[in-house]
Amino acid sequence: MKKYFITGLVILLPLVVTIAIVVFTVNFLTKPFIGVVSSLLHDFNLFNKGFLFLSSEQVAVYGSKLLTLICLFLFTLSLGMFARWFFFKSLITFSDRILHRIPLINKIYKTTQEIIRTIFVTDTNSFKQVVMAPFPKEGTYVMGLVSRESPKICSKHMEEKMHSVLVPTTPNPTTGFLLIYKESDLIFLDLKPEQAIKYIVSCGVIAPESFRESGNPIRKSS
Predict the structure, then answer these.
(1) How far apart are the C-alpha atoms of 8 and 5, rounded to whole Å?
(2) Number of structural domains, the chain?
(3) 200 with 208: CB under 8 angstroms?
(4) I want to staple 187 with a disulfide (CB 3.0 to 4.6 A). Which of 48, 57, 72, 217 is the partner?
């Protein structure tokens, strides 16, 4: 009985969470506009009849949400198209310069901008190498992601090549520690970052398929 219940829970819980997130997102996007859209539908005598087990009011509400989502999608698509035009690019450049001149805000804006460009725009090797790193002491290891080589000043002082390693926390990988290691202290693994994150989020329950039984290092960065 217990095994059957756990199996059903494993199947049902992700579905319920997914539906809940979708419903929350739809309500969040459509709630500010649903009153205006519903009144317009009533004025044009649209969706004023029931459908199956839904009343006319429910049909109007759901129809309003659907039309709102379609309009928001088209608006976002149009905004992206206009962003490629010269005038809009000039406007973005102008606002970018203003934000770079405002004290305190410019620090946050620049840092966020650099992170977004590094992750989504530039073609770098950031977060593409998975390693095992000693933490919190020698003899124990954590799985981390190499962001890139450490600042040159760090390698200069240590007289050895150093790496900046992000160590995500379990089970929430959006937080973690940024640690700097000697290359000789790291064990480079032949794993994809997605596999490592899945292993970390699952608290070690889901092991990557490409783990080697020997546990030996697979490769090192050049």
Answers:
(1) 5
(2) 3
(3) no
(4) 217
Same domain, 106 and 54: no
Q: 20 or 41, which is more confident?
A: 20
pLDDT over 70 for what percent of the chain?
77
- pLDDT, tens digit, for every residue of 81-138? 777 776 666 777 778 788 778 887 877 777 776 656 655 555 555 677 899 999 888 8
Indicate whether 19 and 50 sit together in one domain. yes
Which residues contact residue 68 at a Cβ distance below 8 angstroms, ignoring those fewer than 6 apart? 29, 30, 33, 34, 37
Whether residue 214 is predicted with pLDDT greater than 50 in this model: the reply is no
Q: For position 135, which CATH number holds?
A: 2.30.30
Asked if residue 46 is part of any domain, the answer here is: yes
Phi, psi of 144 (to 5 degrees): -135, 175
In order of 36, 47, 86, 107, the CA distances from 57 in angstroms are 14, 8, 45, 49
| Assigned domain for 33 exists | yes
Residue with tokens 């992206």: 80
Q: Are strands 129-134 and 187-189 parallel, antiparallel or unpaired?
A: antiparallel
Backbone angles phi and psi of 169, in degrees to 5: -90, 160
**Pairwise CA distance, residues 200 & 206, whole Å:** 8
